[in-house]
Amino acid sequence: MGLNENAAARLREMVAAYRPGTDEALMSAALRLAAKWRSQMIANTIRSVNGRKVLHGPFAGMDYAVEAAEGALAARLIGSYESELHPYLLAFLNAGVDHVVDIGCAEGYYAVGIARLAVQVTVHAYDISETARSLCTALAAANGVSDRVVVGAEFKGEDFAAFADKRSLVICDIEGGETELLDPDRWPALKRLPLMVETHPHLSPRATEILIERFAPSHAFTLVHQGPKAGPLPDWLKTLGHLDSLLAVWEWRAQPTPWLVMKPKT
Predict the structure, then answer these.
(1) Is-contact 134 105, C-beta < 8 A?
(2) pLDDT, tens digit, for every residue of 197-251?
(3) Distance between CA 229 and CA 232 in Å, rounded?
(4) Using an 8 Å Cβ cutoff, are 232 and 207 in contact?
(5) Helix crossing, 130-142 with 109-117: angle to 10°?
(6) Class assignment of domain 83-227+254-264?
(7) 113, 193, 237, 254 — which has fewest CB within 10 A?
């Protein structure tokens, strides 16, 4: 079943399930499904008209030869994806980093993008999903950086010690598992590592606050919220409706997932 047919079938199921007085959650789910369908259609058109390379941002020129393991592909292709983090990521890389530990690498947006951007960096990309690891491996090969993107499965707390005495940066996006993994009392090496961590309070209650409390003694931190985007769009996309412009840079977030950017105090 193709993209259009699949989306239409699921929407018909939702419409059939609607009853007077139905909770608004059903209508919200239908809206979200339709929006994701349109977002993917936009991504497909970007690839057809503009090619498959990232158009803007620090990863501009990256050959996006794979599908997104999860989340919005269009925003990645445009280069607006998580653009709030760009200044912080570039500052870490410009300060001198030799190793990036990307925990929850998905298909490799950051892993491969960083390897292309900073030729001195070796990226250690981890994901528990076999599909994600295969996509990340393929993306690294398509961009000629397989020699500097080391793909692995589960990353464990004791593994931080191998990077604590190197010029390293940790990027972590593990869908609510951050409060289990990122504990500097259990893993003291974390106290010496800079981190960029996406928190998921809707999956792990008080995740943001817990991590702030844990790292406040050792790190200075910045809380970064995602917001609406207005990144540069392809010319053809500017001729479509305003809703398409919004959906092109929409990142498919169901709930707020603020990032913590943390730098060791010493």
Answers:
(1) no
(2) 999 999 999 999 999 999 999 999 999 999 888 778 999 999 999 999 999 999 9
(3) 9
(4) no
(5) 30
(6) alpha beta
(7) 254
Across 17-26, 70-79, 90-99, least confident range: 17-26
Backbone angles phi, psi at 262, to 5 degrees: -125, 130
Q: How many CA atoms lie within 13 A of 148 on its CB side?
A: 19
Cβ atoms within 10 Å, residue 259: 23
Output the six-digit token pair for 248. 């092109």
Between helix 109-117 and helix 86-96 the angle, nearest 10°, is: 40
For the chain, domain boundaries: 83-227+254-264
Amino acid identity for residue 118 in this structure: A
Phi and psi at residue 100, in whole multiples of 5°? Answer: -120, 125
Q: Which residue has the tokens 């940066």?
A: 169
Q: Where are the alpha helices (DSSP H) in 59-147?
A: 73-78, 86-96, 109-117, 130-142
Report yes or no: 199 and 260 within 8 Å, Cβ to Cβ.
yes
Task: For residue 14, give the nearest of 4, 24, 165 by alpha carbon.
Answer: 24
CB-based contact 111:146 (threshold 8 Å): no
- Start-end of H helices in 118-184: 130-142, 178-181
Rounded Cα distance, 22 and 27, in Å: 9
**Token pair belonging to 106:** 């998905």
The Cα–Cα gap between 227 and 225 comes to: 6
